[in-house]
Structure to design on (725 residues):
């Protein structure tokens, strides 16, 4: 019985939603030793100052008190810190025994308030021992039993509290939604409100209201068709992150964490909240929830730790009826909604449950000869060949006994219209799909479909589409700035084929695809990209354009890169750079990142179409006597959390040119991706992860045709949205 109440109280009042008094005041059986009573007498007398708070370890092994100077008002508001200090000293959880001269520790005798709980400072030691014995905190053999009995009062209640609480707990554990008023009547109460008032009279449950209690008891409304659309997921995200109590109690939005990558996880009844949103799209508030957040790592690294934090919190505060959900990742004011549909896998089970109910209801109405025992027939080929990894297959399903048929492809529900269904999937390799059909009588049939991905054998290079910046027309953002550098013709080293065209084209994409105004874009090519001119732009033009914490900076570089002889530093070569004098004639990658970081932009996205192996795009050596260099510099090392860096290749690979497209391979597919081709799920936005997947698939394939390996890489948040269109 208490387990359910504790869950109810803790869900509303503990975790990050807690009532200070309910969580820090002691409760239950406690016996003080004689020496502890002497110590308590010292506290009550105010020997060292006005009594503030007296703490005792839960197992009675330790006690300590705090006072405030005499003649001053004793403020006891910040109790949590002293409880924590006591706990650290005792190595056992401490609780408040007394505040000022009132014993707050509750047991079957002491209510924790009123005259009975007040201790006079004038009591002698024997009188204090007698008082604490009367309150049940000291086992004094010289004190008569009758003195204890005078204080103990038997509390009479209306109705069967224990029986009702047990019924509520069983219903909650079984995942059932109950009628609170009807159930209350079964246990001797007029309605749920009478039960609630009776329980509140006999138990300390903090500031829980009647509506709070009913909200906790009610599950998802099973009469509502839950719609897990992106719009509803965005609505739930908005209600969570803008919850007033959440924003008031969390450090999630505070300045110290603002520029760090954060991951928010909550514990809530997701199905219930989505049911409410599906019923009322204008819902103003979700139910209370517990929350935790992680910061400072990658999304992949923080995710399991965030779930672990949430699960620990759930167990600690005995929360039930919900689940741990990752809500979003956030840097500054930029966030990515990570809420995903969670109920798809449950729909078939619910359908099967409904079917069982319908079968039982109709069983008496149907004769044995009318029962349908035949499963649906799935009409689709078991072997299908497609030409594109992003494919769609279709089939039909029929049933002699009914028109109500449900179809499932692996773990996804598939809509059926007039007996026909379509399955969309993306797979770059051969795959299999298990199709299952269920009729309203629960009869099932399945079919395993084998899909062969057969790419056309024609020369892909002949089919390369020309770049078309006009394919996109993103709204202009005044807070975006672009620096674009392309160096094809170097003064003293071999050319970087097509790098000039890469930069000039990217200048158009910066406007059309990234929404950067022309007067916020600086393009430097060939002779305009010398060491002096690049540094002048970095230290003067860029500094004048960036507004701290507001500007979104984009940098594109196409040209040569080179590693230092020890392989510990990476350099970008300006047009007049000397490969033998890198440290004084080239742009250090580390120095570039620090230069930009010190300008404090809101975010930085960098595209580097360069390699550091000492070879050109045409596989020519930059230095005649060049020897292989083992590159040990880590491209992800020291990258600030608000930076995103796309690199054309891994450190040991060559960044190649694409002759028939007259562009670098990386630059060509980067710009094709920004035309919308990288939008894998067609949701009109491209994330860093989607762009990397598109680049890796296409760049590696084209490089392989040249007999090389080239795999683009990403340093940054893969879930961050790069563009919306």
């Amino acid at each position: 019985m208490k387990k359910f109440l504790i869950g109810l109280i803790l869900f509303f009042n503990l975790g990050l939603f807690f009532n200070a008094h309910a969580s820090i005041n002691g409760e239950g059986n406690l016996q003080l030793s004689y020496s502890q009573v002497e110590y308590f007498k010292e506290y009550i007398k105010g020997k060292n100052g006005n009594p503030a708070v007296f703490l005792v370890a839960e197992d009675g092994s330790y006690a300590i008190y705090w006072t405030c100077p005499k003649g001053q008002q004793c403020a006891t508001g910040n109790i949590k810190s002293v409880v924590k200090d006591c706990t650290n000293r005792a190595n056992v959880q401490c609780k408040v025994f007394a505040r000022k001269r009132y014993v707050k520790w509750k047991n079957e005798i002491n209510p924790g308030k009123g005259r009975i709980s007040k201790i006079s400072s004038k009591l002698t030691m024997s009188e204090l021992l007698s008082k604490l014995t009367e309150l049940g905190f000291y086992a004094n053999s010289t004190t008569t039993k009758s003195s204890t009995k005078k204080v103990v009062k038997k509390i009479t209640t209306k109705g069967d509290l224990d029986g009702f609480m047990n019924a509520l707990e069983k219903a909650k554990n079984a995942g059932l939604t109950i009628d609170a008023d009807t159930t209350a009547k079964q246990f001797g109460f007029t309605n749920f409100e009478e039960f609630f008032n009776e329980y509140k009279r006999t138990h300390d449950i903090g500031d829980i209201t009647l509506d709070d209690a009913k909200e906790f008891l009610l599950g998802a409304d099973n009469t509502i068709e839950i719609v897990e659309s992106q719009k509803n997921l965005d609505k739930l995200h908005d209600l969570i992150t803008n919850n007033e109590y959440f924003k008031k109690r969390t450090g999630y939005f505070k300045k110290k964490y603002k520029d760090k990558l954060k991951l928010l996880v909550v514990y809530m009844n997701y199905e219930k909240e989505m049911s409410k949103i599906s019923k009322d799209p204008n819902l103003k508030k979700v139910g209370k929830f517990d929350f935790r957040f992680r910061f400072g790592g990658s999304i992949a690294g923080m995710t399991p730790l965030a779930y672990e934090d949430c699960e620990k919190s759930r167990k600690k505060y005995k929360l039930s009826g919900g689940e741990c959900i990752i809500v979003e990742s956030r840097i500054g004011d930029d966030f990515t909604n990570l809420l995903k549909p969670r109920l798809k896998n449950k729909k078939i089970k619910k359908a099967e449950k409904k079917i069982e109910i319908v079968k039982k209801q109709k069983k008496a109405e149907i004769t044995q000869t009318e029962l349908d025992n035949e499963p649906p027939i799935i009409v689709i080929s078991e072997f299908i060949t497609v030409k594109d990894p992003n494919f769609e297959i279709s089939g039909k399903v029929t049933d002699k006994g009914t028109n109500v048929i449900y179809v499932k492809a692996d773990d996804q529900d598939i809509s059926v219209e007039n007996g026909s269904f379509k399955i969309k999937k993306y797979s770059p390799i051969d795959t299999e799909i298990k199709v299952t059909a269920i009729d309203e009588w629960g009869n099932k049939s399945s079919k395993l479909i084998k899909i062969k991905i057969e790419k056309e054998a024609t020369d892909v290079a002949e089919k390369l589409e020309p770049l078309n910046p006009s394919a996109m027309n993103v709204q202009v953002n005044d807070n975006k700035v672009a620096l674009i550098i392309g160096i094809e013709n170097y003064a003293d080293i071999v050319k970087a084929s097509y790098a000039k065209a890469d930069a000039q084209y990217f200048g158009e994409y910066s406007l059309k695809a990234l929404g950067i105004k022309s007067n916020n874009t600086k393009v430097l090519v060939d002779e305009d990209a010398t060491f002096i001119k690049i540094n002048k732009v970095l230290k003067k033009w860029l500094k004048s354009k960036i507004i701290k914490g507001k500007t979104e900076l984009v940098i594109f570089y196409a040209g040569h890169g080179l590693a230092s002889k020890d392989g510990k530093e990476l350099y970008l070569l300006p047009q007049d750079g000397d490969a033998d004098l890198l440290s004084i004639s080239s742009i250090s990658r580390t120095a570039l990142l620090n230069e930009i970081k010190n300008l404090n932009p809101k975010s930085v996205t960098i595209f580097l179409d360069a390699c550091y192996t000492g070879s050109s795009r045409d596989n020519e050596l930059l230095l005649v006597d060049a020897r292989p260099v083992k590159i040990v510099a880590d491209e992800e090392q020291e990258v600030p959390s608000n930076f995103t860096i796309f690199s054309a290749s891994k450190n040991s690979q060559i960044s190649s040119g694409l002759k028939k497209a007259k562009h670098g391979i990386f630059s060509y597919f980067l710009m094709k991706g920004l035309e919308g081709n990288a939008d894998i799920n067609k949701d009109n936005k491209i994330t860093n992860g989607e762009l990397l997947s598109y680049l890796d698939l296409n760049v590696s394939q084209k490089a392989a045709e040249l007999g090389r390996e080239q795999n683009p890489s990403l340093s940054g948040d893969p879930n961050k949205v790069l563009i919306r269109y």
Summary: The radius of gyration is 35 Å.
